[in-house]
Amino acid sequence: MSTTRQTCRRFAAALAAAAVVAVTGAASASADPADADRGPKPTVVLVHGAFADASSWNGVVARLRHDGYPVVAAADPLRGPAADAAALRSVIDHVRGPVVLVGHSYGGSVISAAAVGEPRVRALVYVAAFLPAPGESALELTGRFPGSTLADALDPVPFTAPDGSTGTDLYIRQDRFRAQFAADVPAGAAALSAAAQRPIAQAALTEPATAAAWRTVPSWDVVTTEDLNIPAEAQRFMARRAHARTTEVAASHSVAVSHPGVVAGVVEQAARATR
């Protein structure tokens, strides 16, 4: 037999052996009990609140994507819980597969409404957020407990809608933004957030909730103990009422910016528990 023919046969035998090893390895991996009963990772839909925009989730998004989660940071119109929930449902309808909804601040009111009757929403995660019951508003819940200094930091701006109706948008004064909203965020980053903040319609904070998905959907909550927007006691009250799995952080209202790893970790706990 020629040297060339012997070399070819040895090469073919080596390939066959490698194929057997590869198939065996793949079978072993697929049999890993840690993955055997888990479906695909859910898409995480992040909803910002008042005085913020979707970029406030950037640190959280980076960590979730690194860990293999599909992520959508939705733009919240901040016009009112019912209207904003309808906008969010259009985002959910565009997502394939299971969903974990995450709401910061007023965004908690939005996800509580949007998840009602949405079977693909497997978990709700509230981040320094409102969990209103039907009939409750964000403003009423904030005022029920002492500690919020938000009212003195607001800058109201009247507006006229295209249909001629009028209203008031609320901003946080830029010179008060860091102290009020983001005391544990570096000064430069807080200044950028102050400039980019999106206003909320004053009427959105007084609009009563009509439904509460946390009554039926498993919920998690990040409570911020140094919060000057929503008092920690208000957050604890809402979390207990919802039987939410709670993580407390010594953080400002802007916890997704100052502690993105903590927030992402809680989101992943919710995702794993509901897969």
Describe the model.
With 275 residues, the protein is of the alpha/beta class. Helix content is 43%, strand content 18%. The protein contains 12 helices and 9 strands. It has helices at 3-30, 33-36, 58-66, 81-94, 107-114, 138-143, 177-181, 187-196, 202-206, 232-241, 255-258, 260-273; strands at residues 43-47, 71-74, 99-104, 121-127, 154-160, 166-172, 200-201, 219-224, 245-249. The chain has a 6-stranded parallel beta sheet, with helices on both faces. A 3-stranded antiparallel beta sheet has the order 5-6-7. The relative contact order is 0.16. Mean pLDDT is 89; it is low at 1-36.
List keywords for this structure.
12 helices, 18% strand, 275 residues, alpha/beta, six-stranded parallel sheet, three-stranded antiparallel sheet
Report a brief summary of the structure.
With 275 residues, this protein is an alpha/beta fold. The protein is built from twelve helices and nine strands.
List the helices and strands and how they pair.
Layout: H1 3-30, H2 33-36, E1 43-47, H3 58-66, E2 71-74, H4 81-94, E3 99-104, H5 107-114, E4 121-127, H6 138-143, E5 154-160, E6 166-172, H7 177-181, H8 187-196, E7 200-201, H9 202-206, E8 219-224, H10 232-241, E9 245-249, H11 255-258, H12 260-273
Parallel strand pairs: 1-2, 1-3, 3-4, 4-8, 8-9
Antiparallel strand pairs: 5-6, 6-7
Number of helical regions: 12
Strand content: 15-25%
Estimated radius of gyration: 24 Å
Q: How far apart are the first and last residues' alpha carbons, in Å?
A: 59 Å
Helix-residue proportion: 40-55%
Secondary-structure element series = HHEHEHEHEHEEHHEHEHEHH
